[in-house]
């Protein structure tokens, strides 16, 4: 989401040495959960990464909006997290975000959000198409 990208940029500008270390540790935990084949742990750590980036960003209004939006998507996010191979797909994106914020590179944390959108929204879009709530797009997969 664009709000998450905003928070990531601001977090990269504001991150302290301690917070950067915590993000790097969280990134290692994310890798470990995928290597161990534990999608529930990965999902929990993924939420924690997004939460920490939001807190570090200091963007209280954006974080509040994101919390409300995510609360409405809990069921979808849970189902997505349990899809075979999903953690392996999103892991590099989340590692890139953690690395960019921890490395204080405010220009780079937004890039991982772009590939995340289509991959994570495709199942939701297909459901909406099946229930006739969205018009089809020409490049629908």
What can you see in these coordinates?
With 141 residues, the protein is mainly alpha-helical. It has a single domain (2-130), classed as Up-down Bundle (Four Helix Bundle (Hemerythrin (Met), subunit A)), CATH 1.20.120. Helix content is 76%, strand content 0%. It has helices spanning 2-14, 17-35, 39-57, 60-72, 74-81, 86-102, 113-130. Helix 1 crosses helix 4. The longest helix is centred in the N-terminal third of the chain and has 19 residues, at 17-35. The protein is globular, with a radius of gyration of 15 Å. The two termini are 21 Å apart. Mean pLDDT is 79; it is low at 114-136.
Characteristic terms for this protein:
141 residues, mainly alpha, 7 helices
Summarize the structure.
This protein is an all-alpha fold and 141 residues long. The chain is 76% helix and 0% strand.
Give the H and E element order. Answer: HHHHHHH
CATH class bucket: Mainly Alpha
Gap from first CA to last CA: 21 Å
Please state the average pLDDT score. 79
**Major beta sheet, specifics?**
none
Percent of residues in helices: over 70%
The coarse silhouette is globular
Strand content: under 5%
Number of strands: 0
Q: Calculate Rg over CA atoms.
A: 15 Å
The tally of domains stands at: 1
Assigned CATH architecture: Up-down Bundle
The SS-based structural class is: mainly alpha
Under CATH, the homologous superfamily reads GntR ligand-binding domain-like
Q: If helices are DSSP runs of H or I spanning 4 or more residues, what is the number of helices? A: 7
Within the CATH hierarchy, at the fold level, what is the topology?
Four Helix Bundle (Hemerythrin (Met), subunit A)
Which stretches of 5+ consecutive residues score pLDDT under 50? 114-136
């Amino acid at each position: 989401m664009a709000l998450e990208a905003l928070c990531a940029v601001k977090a990269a500008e504001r991150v302290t040495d301690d917070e950067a270390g915590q993000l790097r540790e969280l990134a290692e935990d994310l890798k470990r959960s995928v290597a161990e084949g534990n999608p529930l742990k990965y999902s929990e750590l993924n939420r924690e990464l997004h939460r920490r980036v939001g807190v570090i960003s200091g963007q209280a209004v954006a974080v509040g909006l994101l919390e409300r939006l995510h609360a409405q998507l809990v069921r979808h996010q849970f189902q997505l997290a349990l899809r075979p191979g999903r953690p392996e797909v999103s892991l590099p994106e989340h590692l890139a975000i953690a690395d960019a914020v921890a490395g204080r590179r405010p220009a780079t944390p937004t890039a991982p959000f772009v590939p995340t959108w289509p991959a994570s929204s495709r199942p939701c879009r297909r459901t909406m198409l099946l229930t006739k709530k969205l018009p089809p797009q020409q490049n629908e997969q």
